[in-house]
Amino acid sequence: MGGKKITARSLKGKSTAPTHPNSRRAAQVARINHRTSKLQAAKSVRSRAGQAHVDRVSTLILLLPPDLDYVPDMPFLHSFLQDSFLKRHDDEIARLGAERRKGRPMAKREEELRELRDREQREYSAGIEIPDLMNEHNVAKLRQWNGDRQALGQFRFVRVSGDDQEQYVTTREGLMKELALERQEREAAAMAE
């Protein structure tokens, strides 16, 4: 199917007379509307996923103790994730469960929090992508970050797993100048060996 893509704008200038439901023009309008709704649905899915990623990063930074410049080692990182990040909703879940009368169904908020906690626990077990909290430059820049989703490309991200606690795989290097210098130093050291 070649030819020029028909858009709402290109059809708008044509005749304004009512169209027959089975006409070629009606089919074109239907295709345009379907394409538009598909694109809007994909955009909203991307937006929700991006916002969830921003929320995770900002939550991790807010939970990180302010006296730490960076996480010193892997055992501390995993204990931080297990004790602070994954259990951050436990108090509210317990409170909502205590407020509920016996035999009554869970409130929507309690159900959502339980699902979020279980999903994050499964993701942590399989491998969760988080900002590199073991890098001092990365943590310092994250503390200055204003929550802009566009700026996430500046930071280094790693994947850690609860099942394999030695796993620490860099998933995104980050575009910060300090991170690029570290990367060049690592590559130079690897070439020297």
Automatic annotation (TrEMBL):
This is Translation machinery-associated protein 16. InterPro entries: Tma16 (IPR021346), Tma16_sf (IPR038356). Pfam families: Tma16. PANTHER family: TRANSLATION MACHINERY-ASSOCIATED PROTEIN 16. Signal peptide: none annotated. Belongs to the TMA16 family. Residues 1-25 are annotated as: Disordered. It comes from Acaromyces ingoldii. GO terms for cellular component: nucleus.
